[in-house]
Amino acid sequence: MAKRIVLGFVAILLVIAAGYASFFVAPTERTMGDIQRIFYFHVGSAWAGMDAFFVCFLANLLYVWKRKPTYDFLGVSCAEVGLVLTTVVLITGPIWAHPVWGIWWTWDARLTSTFVLWLLYVSYLLLRSLIEEPERRALLSALFGIFAFIDVPLVFFSIRWWRTQHPSPVIMGGSGSGLDPTMSKVFFFNVLAMHVFAAFLIVERYVVEKMKHEVDLLQREAEAL
Amino acid sequence: MSLLSNTATLLGKELRTEFRSRELLTTTVVFILVVLILFSFAINPTSEESREFGPGLLWLAILFAASLMLQPCFLREQANDTLSSLRLAVSDPFSIFLAKLIANTLFLLLTEVLMLPLFAAFYNIPVLPQLHYLLLVLFLGSLGVSIAGTALSAISAQARMRELLLPLLLLPLLTPVLVVSATVSVSLLDREPVVQWKGIGFLAVFDLIFLTALWLFGEYLLEE
Amino acid sequence: MKNLSSIFAAYLIGWGVFFLFYISIAKRTSDIRAELERLKNSLPRK
Question: Looking at this predicted complex, what is its ipTM?
Answer without folding.
Answer: 0.92
